[in-house]
Amino acid sequence: METKELVIDNRFRIQADTHLLTDLSSDVTTRLEPRLMKLLFLLASHAGQLVSREQIIRDIWNDYGGGEDGLTQAISFLRKMLDDMAKDRIRTIPKKGYLLNAVVTPATKITEAEEKEKINVDTILPAEEEPIPALPEKKKNFWTHPAAITLVVTLLVFVLIAGRKTFFPSPVKSREPAGGVEDTLYQYQELKEQQQRQSTNP
Questions:
Q1: How many CA atoms lie within 13 A of 127 on its CB side?
Q2: CATH number for the domain including 9?
Q3: What is the value of pTM for the model shown?
């Protein structure tokens, strides 16, 4: 069964069923008029071979009287579509016909080659490693530092000592008690000591 998709010089894809011509280098697709597609497909199917003008006019123009002029215009248009301003890809063989000077392959083979190349690239190239996120730096706690603990303890001891002296002063001994019962006892002791001194000194 004849394939309906061909690729010219690994660049131009022909899809005869849908009349589409795709330039793979620019990814631009053009829908051709049915006769133009038939002519291009005929030349591509006989790449490297001479296709006579008589055969083209018979197969595509059905021996129509104006087929000669139509064929000339069609070849000119196809050269533009195939980027063939030098007329090297579609060659004119004077007084005989035309020859497609290009490498033509079935589109399925091109697709398989592209897929194989893609698989090879995926196999060779290593997967990119994701960067390991940096761990957040722990903030230093003031209260866990040994010097800070020592300073706080020292301040607490100082405050306790100072507060004790302020709010709890040491009692001052006095020879003379405040009064009341203690005053009477004090006077009694003084009187007794005075009598003892007098008895020892007549």
A1: 3
A2: 1.10.10.10
A3: 0.55
